[in-house]
Specification:
Blueprint lengths: L2 H29 L7 H15 L9 H25 L15 H12 L9 H4 L2 H31 L9 H26 L10 E9 L11 E6 L4 H10 L20 H26 L2 H28 L2 H6 L1 H6 L13 H14 L14 H12 L10 H21 L4 E2 L2 E2 L2 H25 L3 H4 L6 H16 L14 H31 L15 H25 L1 H9 L5
Helix pairs in contact: 1-9, 1-13, 2-7, 3-4, 3-6, 3-19, 4-19, 6-7, 6-8, 6-15, 6-19, 7-8, 8-9, 9-10, 9-13, 10-13, 10-14, 10-20, 13-14, 14-18, 14-21, 15-16, 15-20, 16-18, 16-19, 18-19
Length: 586
């Protein structure tokens, strides 16, 4: 662990903190339909979209109508992406003449991008045409993030309003999220990435002749020497920026943000990491502004920040220590590990940059990676896995992080109410049985699907046949896959062939459950809170604006996660760590 590494972490943290309030105020103005600097340019376009689609922007929806609109839009978008993949071989912008995507894989990918997961069980540069990448995948990167933002804002309205039946208009929230928040930043960010060396073109792939041809792979019948290399390129910058800004994570290349065309420099690495956290951090300020309690917004932000710092310090420490098996077996190997565990990491980013990126991307349900989590030490790999298991509420995805955190806020004030023996209150609203039931449904549905399907896959041939590593590490790979899918993260531990019928089908269903069976109870909570009368605070009201509340909120998140997943973790990364310390190798 070096001073340079700590400086990288501190710089990133300071940038996120500095952007939180101004970005939060801007988003509050956007969703309150107050005037912004972009209005002269975007208002006419917004009006045109409403006229073309027949949307009356002045009519608001109850929570059931809001949920129905979101589900219908998502279902139609998913079907269109499925069809685009299947037919891409006859469509334009396919200079590589890539064929149609197989049905099971196309279904998995359509579910993945519709749910903001961006799980990729394929090699993008050899599977998806330019048209599919731009009109299919990048489009979903915008609208799935916008849908998450819409749900978060609808929940904030439900908290802020009193004795009202409506929580906003989904179509208006979707359009304003896309036009005012996601699109402008993506335009500027894409240019910054091009400046750093990220390609943005529609050219066919280049072929380079190797100066030193590679020998044929041993044991391969009919194999020939490799004399040339295909260099993939394309509209990379435009997809790269929205994959981070919208916490999507799907890479243009299979190596994702470890690929030098997606993430060429330390500065591009910093830009991408900042984009992952920016909106989710700013939404805490939006919460404070729209509810009239800025201190509460900062209390929520403080809980997120504490969990983030604990995670990144643990990963950095674990990776900087290196693997004790190397030093125990060979002092020369130990000397090569003098800087820590560099396996699976890019030299241009180092251990600190890789540990920081891994923590950020799993905190924020982004799923982009600049290293291989499979190659981290057991404790280093445990933290990204645990970040997703906690619900990805540590800043979290665009919109999904805040509404997931507010579910834990409701549980926290309920527990605080039990401690003082009175009906719990949250920002002037009584938290009643219905709210707690919906919150518990949102919290429990994700662990249920993770543990059930991971358990089945770890004991049946359809699951274990795809595992490349035995023992606890193999279990971690299966557990990580379903956790990533249910948490709508999309990153992979590695070492697992997920492009099979079993994994394509079950992971797709897991993604859909993890997205929409959480959103529905969240919107139900929003609608129920909006109908309630406000109650003035009293001596028995537990304040939600103090460090004590932030500490309680943090404790509830950790305890719920620990109680739910500790048995599974103890058989995976924790057991692997103990075996490594004992000098045993699987």
């Amino acid at each position: 662990m070096t001073a340079n590494g700590w400086l990288q972490i501190a710089t990133f943290f300071a940038l996120v903190l500095a952007a939180t309030r101004p970005l939060g105020i801007y988003m509050a103005r956007v969703f309150n339909r107050e005037r912004t600097l972009l209005d002269p340019l975007l208002r006419p376009l917004e009006s045109l979209l409403y006229r073309a689609t027949g949307v009356n922007a002045e009519i608001e929806m109850e929570w059931g109508g809001y949920a129905a609109a979101l589900l219908a839009f998502s279902c139609l978008s998913m079907l269109l992406l499925y069809g685009l993949q299947r037919l891409q071989w006859v469509l334009p912008l396919n200079p590589q003449h890539i064929g149609g995507v197989p049905a099971a894989l196309a279904f998995n990918t359509a579910a993945s991008f519709t749910t903001n997961t961006n799980w990729q069980a394929y090699t993008p540069e050899s599977t998806m045409s330019y048209l599919t990448q731009m009109a299919g995948l990048a489009y979903h990167n915008f609208v799935s993030a916008a849908a998450g933002l819409a749900v978060a804002v609808a929940l904030i309205r439900g908290i802020a309003r009193q004795e009202q039946k409506t929580i906003g208009n989904f179509w208006v929230d979707l359009v304003r999220s896309s036009l005012w928040i996601l699109l402008p930043a993506s335009l500027v960010g894409a240019l910054l990435l091009v400046w750093q060396g990220v390609p943005q073109n529609l050219k066919p792939y280049d072929t380079a002749v190797l100066l030193e041809p590679q020998p044929a792979r041993s044991g391969s019948a009919g194999a020939h020497r490799v004399t040339q290399q295909v260099i993939a390129q394309g509209p990379v910058a435009s997809q790269e920026i929205i994959k981070q800004w919208g916490t999507n994570g799907g890479g243009f290349f299979n190596a994702n943000s470890a690929h030098p065309f997606e993430n060429p420099t330390p500065l591009s690495n910093l830009i991408e990491m900042f984009c992952i956290f920016a909106i989710s951090s700013g939404l805490t300020s939006t919460l404070g502004r729209m509810t009239g309690s800025s201190k509460h917004g900062w209390a929520v932000w403080g809980a997120m920040a504490a969990l983030f710092l604990a995670g990144v310090f643990t990963v950095y420490w674990a990776e900087a220590r290196g693997n004790p098996l190397f030093t125990g077996a060979d002092q020369r190997a130990g000397a090569l590990q003098a800087g820590g565990n560099m396996e699976g990491k890019e030299v241009r980013f180092g251990i600190a940059g890789s540990a920081l990126f891994a923590t950020i991307t799993t905190d924020a349900s982004c799923g982009a990676v600049n290293g291989t989590h499979d190659s981290f030490t057991p404790l280093g790999g445990l933290v990204p896995l645990l970040n997703i298991m906690l619900g990805e509420v540590i800043f979290g995805g665009v919109g999904s992080g805040l509404y997931g955190m507010l579910v834990f806020v409701i549980l926290s004030v309920f527990i605080a109410g039990l401690m003082v023996g009175r009906t719990p209150e949250y920002l002037g609203k009584k938290i009643e049985a219905y709210d707690v039931k919906m919150a518990m449904l949102a919290v429990l549905i994700v662990p249920a699907v993770i543990l059930a399907l991971a358990g089945i896959s770890s004991v049946t041939p359809v699951g274990t046949s795809s595992v490349l590593n035995p023992g606890p590490h193999g279990l971690s790979e299966i557990l990580y896959a379903y956790t990533s899918a249910a948490g709508n993260n999309g990153s992979a531990f590695g070492g697992l062939n997920a492009n099979t019928f079993w994994y394509n089908l079950t992971l797709a269903l897991t993604m859909l459950v993890g997205r929409f069976l959480v959103i529905i109870p969240v919107l139900a909570i929003a609608g129920n809170l909006a109908r309630k009368k406000g109650v003035p605070p009293s001596a028995g009201t537990f304040p939600v604006t103090t460090p004590l509340f932030a500490a309680l909120l943090t404790s509830v998140i950790v305890i719920v996660g620990a109680l739910t997943f500790f048995p599974a973790l103890s058989l995976g990364p924790l057991l692997e760590h103990l075996l490594m310390q004992a000098g045993k190798i699987f």
